[in-house]
């Protein structure tokens, strides 16, 4: 069953993995909703195991672009040199296998997302590839207490050199929530679509994102629930409020749409 969330107006489409379909993703792509939430995406028995496997781990490493953020897996957004991209592709398969091993004997939620997207999109879904090299997909993020994921947008084009022949016309993102703080950690989304030049101008000399003081109040604030998956359009300015108690742990993918008739491409 798919419904809007009354407390969030018509801005969040609430459904389940069984109810998620092409129309749900199209509603997000068309800007009809700010988010699509799949309640209970991770089944209860798997969720209990995954929380035991992922919550409390200390072997996550610092994000290359901002060490206050922690992750398992290597995000493409960390790469800004040819050497960095070479390392990213060399480690991509190892990183996927490492995360699958942590999740075993249950499936890794990023794999479940890829399968679900393949089933609901007319042309299917697959890993993003460049010259036969597969991207990594399914980074596990640990947003530690007190860390502010400030207002920002996501755009793979920022990390692609001009000779990278990858055609992504639209980019969506999805996170599966393995743990959320009791206080803080809300997903915030604004009615604000800066183009890339405007975003760079508004970021100025900042290491990351846009000053919170300059964006006003968000249009939508979603309190994630453990086990849910939430899809958003990361072209909208979005943020995550700082946790007030414990790390917020998610597994995330980007989803690329090159053409409605072509398959979706996923990566992290």
TrEMBL record:
InterPro entries for the chain: Oxoglu/Fe-dep_dioxygenase_dom, WelO5-like
TM ranges: none
Domain Fe2OG dioxygenase: residue ranges: 133-257
Alphabetically ordered keywords of this record: Iron, Metal-binding, Oxidoreductase
Superkingdom of the source species: Bacteria
Family of this protein: Belongs to the iron/ascorbate-dependent oxidoreductase family.
Protein name (database record): 2OG-Fe(II) oxygenase
